[in-house]
Amino acid sequence: MIMKWLEAERLGVADLLEDLTDDEWRRETLCAGWTAQEMAAHLTTSTRTGWRDVLTGVVRARFDWERMEDTRAREIAARFTRQELIARIRATAASPKRAPMASPIDPLVDFLVHGQDVARPLGRVREMPPEPAEAALEHVLKSPFWGARKRFGTPESPIYRSPTC
């Protein structure tokens, strides 16, 4: 079921990206410092990242995962045109391949979240399908990779922030 949801999200995000104006393509997403172009580049990596990419990338980034992801997205965005980035997402929409250490649902989480990251600052509504969104949220809350416990804490915790989206 996850693969059907993932394919639909990949194609839906590709449709969103294709529908953007040139101005919207260059506008910042909810991921600070990333335009829709860098976001599209980032989204092409889930099916094209191997162990060698991760190991060399993280070493180059001085073991900073976020820096590694940022550098890679910017390099890909500079190398490919808008049409090529969107085509890369479409070409692997049904692919089960995923980055090392990623669970089968992690790419779905990425596309659900990043689709919103692109759409919301532009005032666009991107519907979140309830069943995939619920499965993704359950996964994120349990997974140490996503850091939900650290980011949200518990309702009794002083660092707890109620999710608003």
Polypeptide structure, described:
- This protein is 59% helix and 0% strand.
- It contains nine helices and no strands.
- The chain has helices spanning 2-19, 22-26, 36-43, 51-60, 65-79, 82-91, 106-119, 130-142, 148-152.
- It is globular.
Rg over CA atoms: 16 Å
Q: Distance N terminus to C terminus? A: 24 Å
Strand content: under 5%
Helix content: 55-70%
Which consecutive residue ranges, at least 5 long each, have pLDDT under 50? 157-165
Number of helices: 9
Which class do the helix and strand fractions yield? mainly alpha
Please count the beta strands (DSSP E, at least 2 residues each): 0
Mean pLDDT: 89
Largest beta sheet, briefly? none
- Give the helices and strands as they follow along the chain: HHHHHHHHH
- Based on CA inertia axes, which overall geometry fits? globular
Brief summary:
It contains nine helices and no strands. Helices cover 59% and strands 0% of the residues.
Task: Map the helices and strands.
Layout: H1 2-19, H2 22-26, H3 36-43, H4 51-60, H5 65-79, H6 82-91, H7 106-119, H8 130-142, H9 148-152
Helix pairs in contact: 1-6, 1-7, 3-5, 3-6, 4-5, 7-8
Short key terms for the protein model shown above:
165 residues; mainly alpha; 0% strand; disordered C terminus
